[in-house]
Design a protein that fits this description.
This protein has 414 residues and is of the alpha/beta class. It contains 14 helices and 14 strands. Bound molecules: pyridoxal-5'-phosphate.
């Protein structure tokens, strides 16, 4: 009897990459990855000095913590309006009016988010389509290009020169704008360079983007951290036309030492804020309810902690810059804001320590961690391969110890 031939085994479908192309196209945040690495080393008992984290070493002021306790006690533990409670949106509008001379409708022009980062992400998702171009001055904050890529848009990097204070010039901005340019992300005070654009410089840039009809996302999360004679002037203040094209992003993280609380906001044209709110309503729903109540107190309560923190950062800045410039092969401009030093280190490239060659800033950072037990963030992630970033949001004692270690390492290079 003839047996029926067995059917050929069904062919397994071709294996598909479980990750999207969009996910594969972006890099992890280098600063967050390095922060985790230091935490792991410290947990193993390794004595590491970290200049990595961009977060204040100060505690959140007591009256803000108390406001969170009060909100908890009152049972403010439910979902809120997706755009944030109206009382906080009104407090943000009052702050922007009083401190920046910018007037916004709290109902339609302000969005409360889980940190400045979520505000930037929402605005990018709301505004950019695949193929749109988004301008960034290099050195830039590590997250901007990656966020732009998550929208399928193209980050267009405009290099700046240290000799010009790492600042985007009106000419360079004008030259970089094409028919596809939809957004320019502008950061002052800047992470990673700490530079602060003056009022005149902001006005000159504003004339260009108003003339060319390009929107600007103005990242002002370091607004309160300016030193010496430097003053923060929002690019949205340049003219009514500039304000109409600008989305201001700010945060409670750096000003009030509230990084872990996750609270920030965006203010701008109702159409863009509405679009960003729609994105938020379909992702995180609303920012943390308790934090929102605490942030009303942050804005309306005693502001003296900011002055205290700023004075301390300024002393640290002076020390770190002076010490870095005293190390052979390293040079560092004196930044006017934020809490980062951004020294140029390429004169160390090609030198050796313990048989290893400092071939670039990534390797330098690796060797500093392995040999000197100091964490610095390498510049390539900021679009600046000749530099490294040191955060001075850490105590003076730690800063001095870290600089001693860096100096010893550099002096041992051959
Ligand atoms: N923008 C810049 C330039 C930053 O450096 C950071 C944080 O490091 C943020 C935005 C986001 O801060 P957060 O999400 O904590 O408000």
């Amino acid at each position: 009897m003839k047996t029926k031939p067995k059917p050929a085994a069904a062919k397994a479908p071709p294996r598909r990459d479980p990750l999207s192309q969009r996910c594969n196209s972006i890099e992890e945040s280098i600063t967050l990855a390095l922060t985790d690495k230091v935490a792991q080393l410290k947990a193993k008992g390794v004595d590491v000095v970290s200049f990595g984290a961009g977060e204040p070493d100060f505690d959140t002021p007591a009256h803000i913590k108390q406001a969170a306790n009060d909100a908890l006690a009152k049972g403010m533990t439910k979902y809120t309006s997706s755009s944030g409670i109206l009382a906080l949106r009104k407090a943000v509008a009052a702050k922007l009016q009083k401190e920046n001379g910018l007037s916004y409708d709290p109902q339609t022009q302000i969005l409360i988010c889980a940190g400045g980062k979520q505000a930037i992400f929402n605005v990018i998702q709301a505004m950019l389509d695949p193929g749109d171009e988004c301008l960034l001055a290099a050195p830039y904050w590590v997250s901007y290009p990656e966020m732009v890529k998550t929208a399928g848009a193209v980050p267009v990097i405009v290099p700046t020169r240290e000799a010009e204070g790492f600042k985007m010039t009106p000419r360079a901005l004008d030259k970089a704008i094409t028919r596809r340019t939809k957004l320019f992300i502008h950061c002052s005070p800047s992470n990673p360079t700490g530079i602060v654009y003056s009022e005149d410089e902001q006005r000159a840039l504003a004339r260009v983007f108003v003339d060319r009809g390009v929107h600007v996302l103005s990242d002002e999360v370091y607004e309160k951290l300016v030193y010496g004679d430097a003053k923060h002037f929002s690019i949205a203040q340049a003219s009514p036309e500039a304000k109409d094209l600008t989305i201001v992003v700010n945060s409670f993280s750096k000003s009030y030492a509230m990084t872990g609380w996750r609270m920030g906001y965006a203010a701008g044209p109702a159409s863009i804020i509405g679009g960003s709110a729609k994105i938020q309503s379909q992702s995180t729903s609303n920012p943390n309810s308790i934090t929102q109540y605490a942030c009303i107190t942050a804005l309306e309560g005693d502001q003296s902690a900011i002055g205290m923190m700023r004075a301390e950062y300024e002393k640290r800045r002076d020390t770190i810059v002076q010490r870095l410039n005293a190390i052979p092969g390293i040079s560092c401009i004196k930044p006017d804001g934020a809490f980062y030093a951004f020294p140029r280190v390429d004169r160390l490239f090609g030198k050796k320590h313990s048989g290893r060659v400092v071939s670039d800033a990534n390797v330098l950072a690796e060797m500093l961690l392995d040999i000197a037990r100091v964490l610095v963030v390498p510049g390539p992630g900021f679009g600046a391969p000749e530099y490294v970033r040191l955060s001075y949001a850490t105590s003076m004692k730690v800063i001095l110890e870290g600089l001693d270690r860096i100096e010893k390492f550099v002096r041992e290079l051959v």
